[in-house]
Specification:
By secondary structure, the protein is of the alpha+beta class. The chain has two domains: 14-89, Arc Repressor Mutant, subunit A; 95-220, GAF domain (Beta-Lactamase, 2-Layer Sandwich). The protein contains eight helices and seven strands, in the order H-H-H-E-E-H-H-E-E-H-H-E-E-E-H. It has helices at residues 14-31, 37-44, 48-60, 77-89, 95-105, 134-139, 145-154, 202-220, and strands at 64-66, 73-75, 109-114, 121-124, 161-165, 172-180, 186-195. It has a five-stranded antiparallel β-sheet, sandwiched between helices. It has a two-stranded antiparallel ribbon with strand order 1-2. A hairpin with a 6-residue loop joins strand 5 (161-165) and strand 6 (172-180). Helix 1 (14-31) packs across helix 3.
Length: 221
Amino acid sequence: MSRPGSDPGLTGRQPSAVHGALSVLEEVARAGPGVTAQQISRSLGLPRATTYRLLNLLVQDEYLVRMPDLAGFALGHKVALLAGLAAAAAPAENPHDIVVELRGRIRGGVHLASYRDGVLELVDVDPDFPLSDERRLLSDLSSSALGTLLIAERRHDPLPFSSRPTPAMPGRGCFAAALRDATGALVAGVALALPEQRLAEPESLLELIAPECRRLEAALR
């Protein structure tokens, strides 16, 4: 008979069993496909009989699968399903918020451009560092780093970045990093408006903004 206020469907041993099953799943994920029951038992400090019982339950419920040679175990399709559902449920970041963060740590202007349908379009211009000649930037692609990325893409010679001096502003320059989709196609570009001397090491600039570029690529997908 259950005590008042207790859950008759949950015994004192069940939480321990659930914890053990989750620990086994974590160990298989950590060790990788082919890990054996003996290795799991040793790593987790579980009795061998308990380990086998948990493994069998997880295999029956398709959270684990036996390897073809029956010597070890790997994660099953239900784990992949749960991971996929979790990824789908995670809200995508707002590209504008990422650009704002980048502006907070770059001493210069930060602009975001789209290349949708193969056309350069400015979608997020830095209000504190307005473009010197937006009309020319859009009409003469060769005059800007953003345009140069698109020219290279059209020629099937993709670039990871481009840098150019700003014609209308002596001593100033522009660096642009390419943002690509899962197929590798150019979809957007991040441009930095900087003093021209800072363009001397473009690889360092690319490394500097790489974290935000990766986040922007994920958000734009």
